TrEMBL record:
Organism: Microbulbifer aggregans
GO MF assignments: phenylacetate-CoA ligase activity
Enzyme Commission designation: 6.2.1.30
One Pfam family of this chain: AMP-binding_C_2
Residue ranges constituting the AMP-dependent ligase C-terminal domain according to the UniProt record: 367-464
Protein name per its UniProtKB record: Phenylacetate-coenzyme A ligase
Organism superkingdom: Bacteria
Keywords for this protein: Ligase
Amino acid sequence: MPYPSYFESFDVHQALADYPLGDGFLEAYAGMSRDALRELQNQRFLKLMVRGWQIPFYQRLWGAAGIEPGDIRSLDDIEKLPVFSKSDIMESVEQCPPIGDFSGLEGLAPEERPPVVFHTTSGTTGRPQPIIFGPRGREIQAMLVARAYRFMGLKPGATVQSTYGHGMINGGHYIREAVTRYTNAMFLSAGTGLETRSAQQVQLMHDFGVNVLVGFADYIKKLASVAEECGLVPGEDLRVDMIIGHLGQETRAALSDAWGGAALYDWYGVADTGCIAAEGPDQEGLYVWEDAHYLELLDVDSGKPVSSGETGNMVVTCLYKDDIYPVIRFNTCDITAEIPGANPFHLPFRRIRGFLGRSDNMVKLRGINVYPHGIGGMLAEMDCFTGEYVCIAERDDTGRETLTIMVEVTAPVAEHPQITAQSCALLKRKLGLEVGVELVWPGETAQWTELERRQKPLRLIDRRFG
């Protein structure tokens, strides 16, 4: 029986017109009012809701909350809908194995299905989550990454090396699609240290003149040390002028210096949603792609919207994903805050601070919430801090909970007592409670963070309940 191929199943030219990149991005949105943007969002939201009501997962989720189709008449009504998270998706998979009932493929025979792209999460915290994309949603997702890279200033003819993982996980694949289809850069899909040994990655950079690195900041920084071990000097033998990655709150200066002064650009997204926000050339926060996403910042405890400048969970509705796996009020459990004020490009889009930590990875000690991913930024005030650390939560025989931060430093042993005292005082001031600090040499936290093996290093070892 006849069926459409991948690019025949949607209008790629219309998708590029709807979600422009390059010069077309600024031409479309510079000077647009918030009201005009809201109207565009509303149109796309209503189309998305029609698709949502066709999906058993949403029928069940919304029905359990007493929601009927007529209750949601515009984007103003979105708060009536319940949020969902990864746990709800995994429950769907358990009830309807192997892919759940959230994709819109339910009830279709295999030969009747449209083209799909299938990936999973890494599964490091349990069973991998299946993630399914339709061609239109997948390509717009790639376009938004390319929009970010080009807005940041990716130069024509650049050579990009990616340290994102491949295999079944999504990250490396869709970054490759974004760069190869929607920029004119040459792309080297090196992957993680397990996929291509770190020394070999460095040699690839040297042989092919790589000038842009993309991936997670922790591993990219490690590669600078590997380069030196291989006798290659970052900034001289390896002329990387741009690093695009997930920078978190770790020190940017140390990463830039490690690569000879490379410019750093942050962006944010998760597997279910694609690229949500990215830094521009002004580097004054991450611009939310609000033509493609409706982003809510909700209080971790109450679920209510937070005020501008306050931290909250990022809850995302993908306005463009109206084919396969619509995403409507997905709680990423990632924390950020809005940056108030105008931007130099006169864009109608809000800006956020980027990833500040995970609400589901929070440690509550003596009534105070501590986000392990945010501690690196606090320690960045110390010149001897390498950027690598791990938090260890424990409970002693009396039931008292403690948190010890294992911190990699380059300072001589004779200076360790003074640095330990300074670190403890710094963290007490910033966290509002006392924590322990243990100083170790560079590389000694890797056995706990699993830096070589994971895209996102572990920052918390919780021994309180073992």
